[in-house]
């Protein structure tokens, strides 16, 4: 969800009035990182305009302009680590030169002061650190955005070489140059002339002559990649599966939805039944609703259920509070609400905090047979649901034997942290979960 930046004003001269842009308050969030600037210095902005994207400890958020005007100075580079309340930019009512901004701030000769988080006086304006001497002559002639500098480093491109008649280089300029370089890869039938044998930056050896299209990672994808890699590297994962006959669940859902439809209420999903049963079983097996620490296992006394949601910009996990108190119909409404917020990009940091157990439902996307996952740290367990598919099952024939029938079958996967949990605890939980669904003996 886009957040309005915190707004203050400086200078009593209304002709040079500046508006401060600060990192806004976001619940329990304290530290953030600027991932990229979406707005260049000199561009007009409004409260609907995204200035930059920031990373919290859970997700990527957009920071909107606090007022209409012109962005006249950026005070933090992309990849800067900041705190809530830090000053990141200035807006003005009309375009201003760098010298005019300095004058409005009372900076003699544009003398730089401390950057955010470097110990400058509280509330004192901050500016970017000076460029390296080697870049000074280029910078004096070319205006390069922080985002363009970062992309230039990633793709091995000197941004100053891309300057147009306007004297400005943006991130889009660097991306276009990178894509043009990729498009110029020599076909296999006509190998490139002599080279030193080195592959292009980031390319595996042996693929130098294979054409490809570069799809830059979004800020959210970079966050997802970094966190999943860290969790996979530091937590010993194991996954156990169980087979559930879903006949009773589907029969109960059909009857229940018939009553709801007759009264004008919306139908409930299968996921709502699964979530309700998962939380009911957690109350009997609380060690799975926990966080591992070196001092011991923190067993949470409340169940706050994370729901993995697939969005165009990547996976997010909003949290449903006090999930064990919800009925199936309440679960259905809550799941649909947080999923809509996630897909519309309207989640706040508070919507993503404090989860104690997570469920994932890749079966809603396609006929996947297994739902193994990487844990949603710092949780110790995640329950994944593949597709419900018909399969042959041996069922009692009423005469002491069995017969084979095609039944709707779900094979949920419980991925767990093996440090605090052994197989026995996991198998007992899965057995309880299976029994509740196959008998529908739980309050739903």
UniProtKB/TrEMBL annotation:
<keyword id="KW-0450">Lipoyl</keyword>
<dbReference type="GO" id="GO:0005737">
    <property type="term" value="C:cytoplasm"/>
</dbReference>
<keyword id="KW-0012">Acyltransferase</keyword>
<dbReference type="GO" id="GO:0016407">
    <property type="term" value="F:acetyltransferase activity"/>
</dbReference>
<dbReference type="InterPro" id="IPR000089">
    <property type="entry name" value="Biotin_lipoyl"/>
</dbReference>
<feature type="domain" description="Lipoyl-binding">
    <location>
        <begin position="18"/>
        <end position="92"/>
    </location>
</feature>
<dbReference type="Pfam" id="PF00198">
    <property type="entry name" value="2-oxoacid_dh"/>
</dbReference>
<dbReference type="InterPro" id="IPR036625">
    <property type="entry name" value="E3-bd_dom_sf"/>
</dbReference>
<dbReference type="Pfam" id="PF00364">
    <property type="entry name" value="Biotin_lipoyl"/>
</dbReference>
<protein>
    <recommendedName>
        <fullName>Dihydrolipoamide acetyltransferase component of pyruvate dehydrogenase complex</fullName>
        <ecNumber>2.3.1.-</ecNumber>
    </recommendedName>
</protein>
<dbReference type="InterPro" id="IPR023213">
    <property type="entry name" value="CAT-like_dom_sf"/>
</dbReference>
<dbReference type="InterPro" id="IPR001078">
    <property type="entry name" value="2-oxoacid_DH_actylTfrase"/>
</dbReference>
<keyword id="KW-0670">Pyruvate</keyword>
<keyword id="KW-0808">Transferase</keyword>
<feature type="region of interest" description="Disordered">
    <location>
        <begin position="115"/>
        <end position="134"/>
    </location>
</feature>
<dbReference type="InterPro" id="IPR011053">
    <property type="entry name" value="Single_hybrid_motif"/>
</dbReference>
<dbReference type="InterPro" id="IPR004167">
    <property type="entry name" value="PSBD"/>
</dbReference>
<comment type="subunit">
    <text>Forms a 24-polypeptide structural core with octahedral symmetry.</text>
</comment>
<dbReference type="InterPro" id="IPR050743">
    <property type="entry name" value="2-oxoacid_DH_E2_comp"/>
</dbReference>
<comment type="similarity">
    <text>Belongs to the 2-oxoacid dehydrogenase family.</text>
</comment>
<dbReference type="GO" id="GO:0031405">
    <property type="term" value="F:lipoic acid binding"/>
</dbReference>
<feature type="domain" description="Peripheral subunit-binding (PSBD)">
    <location>
        <begin position="143"/>
        <end position="178"/>
    </location>
</feature>
